[in-house]
Design goal:
The complex is a heterodimer. Chain A is an all-alpha fold. Chain A has 2 domains: 43 residues, no CATH class; 101 residues. Chain A is built from 4 helices and no strands. In chain A, helix 2 runs antiparallel to helix 3 and helix 2 packs across helix 4. Chain A is elongated, with a radius of gyration of 24 Å. By secondary structure, chain B is α+β, with helices and mostly antiparallel strands. Among the domains of chain B are: 339 residues, no CATH class; 158 residues, no CATH class. Chain B has 22 helices and 10 strands. The chains are: A mainly alpha, B alpha+beta. At the A-B interface, helix 1, helix 2 and helix 4 of A face helix 1, helix 2, helix 8, helix 14 and helix 15 of B.
Chain lengths: 144, 720
């Protein structure tokens, strides 16, 4: 019985070491052996900062789209007058554009830091279309 | 097996220590592999604690009394159903359950955020593992669930009969899931402050977990109330017991957070408030755990006589001091990005709701902890009872219910008075109509209950109007049939309409609370077979006594050696309403010195409540058979002095026969509570609404977004 207990404990310890140590073992492998590895991942600080900013902005963008949708919902259920809705909707879309304008370069920075390359940014008109397009897709228009 | 279980605990402690170090090293040096390794430590912790739980569960199911925990809280006569749940009836087992659930929920949270919030998640990992280390440390150093005694006792003490109730299988895991889920937003909140990333992303990452904590905690509290009403012999569902209060406080601050986080998501406001609520909720969850485990309370819920108070006080002190330091030192980053556009806006309603919820929490905190602090300082026992709590909580609850009807009909950002007038018309008419109808019906003697009914009617009007208008708008746009439009409306706006359903459920629940507490009729007295008594509009007649012996034949299926009960006939104006079979179970005692017969029935006597009624009224009864009646006592005394242990059941059979043939006058507690059933219905409605709000968006939407994003990326690359 004691032997079985010792053996079981050793098995559990071995499994734990395998699971917990996997990322460190992977990091110590030569770079070319790692799937999807690139030289840029050796500067994780910059990558993390950039990715963090992108994530924050993406969260802000999603929240803004939700806000646009909520305003529409409030209008359709009679909680906002047409004038108020138009004014709020214009404000919100402007704020969404601002977020997209900040998100674009941040995404490019993040791509460059990741070593995956970037793309040139679209113009203002295209960005406005994007607010419309992304919001339609993400929020599954119409709001109601 | 106990050695293996203990080895798992030691390994869990090592994993926690390693994981904390790896996560902090990873985030401080930017070495992602160490942060990843720290995250995987949480997965490993969950795996190891699952093994430990399995070892203990097997010991319970196999009646392995070498385990002290099994011997203390289970027995061969404990039904298998309850034996499986007895693991969390002990201090040691419940600590293991806490740590296990925390590790599972933490693993889920970290798995879902594994590609986001790297720095926040790394700090959060360290905090979660810190909690893990604390609870595993308590088990390793203070309350080992794998402690053994050799040779094993031939029989265990058995599960506390009060806990032999079906909801006890799920009440503690639900409550503990709520508590442990509260620590996840706490950990991410601390992580966000430490990494100085206090924008919308961390809020988005923890929103579902905060909601899940609210849902589990709420359901756990409701199950506890149901247990109290259906099992304890006092006819109530909420006694302002310190342990009940301890679970309610984080639920209240969690509710406040779920509302105010929407303001931060949308407007970038209330960052200090939100992070403070998250930290307070996590701390209150640990304080709730402390109340049960410290041994400072004498409550049915508490595990008295233990000495875990000091480690808990240290942990709570560190959590409070650390939280205050972090919020104060990061106050510049937590400034609001916007200001309130208008006082007539949903943001204002949410702010008011937050203030009421926090005020409620403060009142309950004061009423719960002040007597304990006072007792610790003066040495004199003191407590505040339900009247004290009711004085402050009832008006606040009224405002809260009213606000839950106001919020849904006001627009975000700003609303005009003209719109507000139109939107409030139906809710106000609903409330006033209810007032008039109740006045005409003569329900005027309880002003607070009357006010609650009117406020609830206001909420029904408000929420009903929202559903009607939303469905109408959807029908106008999509041309769908009303049921399809309603279904589509909820499906596409889960958070909003799920939340409305929660509001509806809370209003229903408060109607039940107000009616059952204000218009309750209670009666207590002794009856002989054939005699009747009145309670409210009901006549209750004691028809005949009942009895069963041996755990196998216990009608309540709780394993009592002797069960004495009665058959009661309930009528209203001569019409039969129902037949009730209340009983009281007498259980084995762990004191053999009581005598051969008394040791079989001299343990705790537990009332098995019987109820009948429906949606409008509930007739509740509990019985207290007089086992000390001279003709019954004589049998016990004679059996104790003459019968060997293996024949003691003969005396109990005689006792049961004597009770059936010559029943002594029996005490009955009778309570008629109007609308009490609606408390449970309201809880289920709220739970359903919560699930709708928590449910993720349809995957098709996500897939479409991903597809469009990919298409855009390709267009961008082509341009480049």
């Amino acid at each position: 019985m004691a032997f079985l207990i010792a053996l079981s404990t050793l098995v559990v310890v071995a499994v734990v070491v395998l699971i917990v140590g996997a990322p460190i073992r992977r990091a110590h492998r030569p770079a070319q052996d790692r799937p999807g590895a690139s030289p840029a991942t050796d500067s994780p600080d910059a990558a993390a900062t950039s990715a963090g900013e992108v994530q924050d902005l993406e969260a802000a963008r999603e929240a803004k789209y939700r806000e646009i949708r909520d305003a529409e919902m409030d209008f359709r259920t009679g909680k906002l007058s047409r004038e108020d809705y138009d004014a709020i909707d214009a404000d919100l879309r402007g704020e969404a554009l601002q977020i997209l304008n900040r998100l674009e370069p941040a995404e490019e920075d993040s791509d460059e830091t990741d070593g995956s390359g970037g793309a040139s940014g679209p113009g203002l008109l295209e960005q406005q279309e994007r607010v419309q397009e992304e919001q339609h897709a993400e929020e599954d228009r119409p709001a109601v | 097996m106990a050695g293996f279980g203990y080895a798992c605990l030691l390994l869990a402690l090592v994993i926690c220590a390693y994981g904390i170090g790896a996560s902090l090293y990873g985030v401080r040096t930017g070495r992602v592999e160490f942060s990843d390794s720290g995250r995987r430590s949480v997965y490993a912790l969950a795996g190891v604690l699952t093994v430990a739980m399995a070892v203990l569960e097997i010991a319970f199911l196999n009646n392995n009394f070498t385990f002290n925990t099994v011997a203390d809280t289970s027995s061969r006569t404990t039904p298998t159903f309850y034996r499986a749940a007895a693991i969390w009836a002990s201090q040691e087992g419940s600590l293991l359950l806490w740590a296990w659930l925390m590790s599972l929920w933490s693993s889920l949270a970290l798995f879902l955020t594994r590609k986001r919030l790297r720095d926040v998640a790394a700090y959060a990992t360290a905090i979660m593992l810190g909690f893990g280390a604390f609870f595993v440390g308590l088990m390793v150093f203070y309350a080992n669930p794998f402690a053994t005694t050799n040779p094993a006792p031939p029989e265990g003490v058995g599960l506390d009969p009060l806990l032999r109730f079906p909801t006890m299988m799920i009440h503690p895991p639900m409550l503990y899931s709520g508590y442990t889920l509260c620590t996840i937003p706490f950990a991410f909140g601390v992580g966000a402050l430490l990494s100085r990333r206090v924008d919308a992303d961390w809020i988005k990452a923890i929103r579902r977990f905060a909601f899940a904590a609210w849902l589990f905690l709420g359901f756990g509290i409701l199950l506890g109330a149901l247990w109290s009403y259906s099992e304890l012999g006092w006819g109530g569902y909420w006694g302002w017991d310190a342990v009940e209060n301890a679970s309610l406080m984080p639920w209240l601050t969690g509710t406040a957070f779920l509302h105010s986080l929407m303001i931060q998501e949308k407007r970038g406001m209330l960052k200090v408030w939100n992070v403070s609520l998250v930290l307070a909720t996590g701390t209150l969850a640990i304080m709730g755990t402390f109340l049960v485990r410290s041994g400072i309370l004498d409550s049915i819920h508490a595990f008295g006589g233990h000495t875990l108070g000091v480690p808990f006080v240290i942990l709570i002190g560190v959590m409070i001091a650390g939280s205050i330091y972090l919020v104060v030192s990061r106050r510049d980053m937590l400034r609001s990005e916007h200001r309130l556009d208008s006082l007539l806006s949903r943001e204002s309603a949410f702010l008011a709701n937050n203030l009421v919820l926090v005020a409620l929490c403060f009142v309950i905190f004061w009423g719960t902890y002040f007597p304990l602090i006072s007792e610790a300082v003066t040495g004199q026992e003191s407590s505040v009872g339900p009247p004290w709590f009711d004085r402050y909580t009832v008006p606040l609850a009224l405002i809260l219910v009213l606000l839950s009807g106001i919020g849904p009909v006001i627009a975000w950002r700003r609303a005009t008075f003209a719109n507000a007038r139109r939107n409030f018309l139906i809710p106000v008419v609903s409330g006033l109509t209810t007032l008039v109808v109740l006045e005409i019906a003569g329900v005027t003697q309880k002003p607070f209950a009357l006010a609650m009914f009117c406020c609830a009617a206001f909420v029904f009007g408000s929420i009903g109007q929202e559903f009607f208008r939303g469905t109408r708008a959807r029908r106008a746009m999509a041309g769908e049939s009303p049921p399809l439009a309603l279904f589509g409306l909820i499906k596409r706006n889960r958070r909003r309409y799920g939340g409305y359903i929660v509001h509806l459920g809370i209003a229903v629940l408060f109607v039940g609370v107000a009616a059952s507490s204000s218009f309750q009729h209670a009666s207590q007295g002794g009856l002989k077979p054939g005699q009747s008594t009145r309670v409210g509009d009901y006549e209750v007649r004691y028809v005949r006594p009942t009895a069963s012996i041996t755990p196998k034949y216990d009608q309540a299926h709780t394993g009592s050696t002797l069960s004495l009960g009665a058959v009661l006939d309930v009528t209203e104006n001569g019409h039969h309403v129902g037949t009730l079979n209340p009983s009281e179970g007498f259980y084995e005692s762990d004191e053999p010195s009581q005598g051969t017969v008394s040791s079989l029935i001299g343990g705790q006597a537990v009332s098995h409540v019987a109820m009948t009624g429906g949606l409008l009224r509930n007739v509740w009864t509990a019985i207290e058979p007089d086992i000390e009646a001279p003709n019954l006592k004589r049998i016990v005394t004679a059996g104790n002095s003459t019968l060997p242990p293996d024949e003691a059941l003969v005396a109990i059979a005689y006792l049961a026969r004597a009770y059936l043939k010559h029943p002594p006058p029996t005490q009955f507690n009778l309570v008629v509570s109007p609308l009490v059933f609606w408390i449970w219905i309201g809880g289920v409605i709220s739970f359903g609404g919560g699930l709708i709000a928590l449910w993720p968006a349809p995957s098709t939407v996500r897939r479409r977004v991903a597809a469009r994003s990919r298409a855009r990326a390709l267009r961008g690359l082509a341009r480049a």
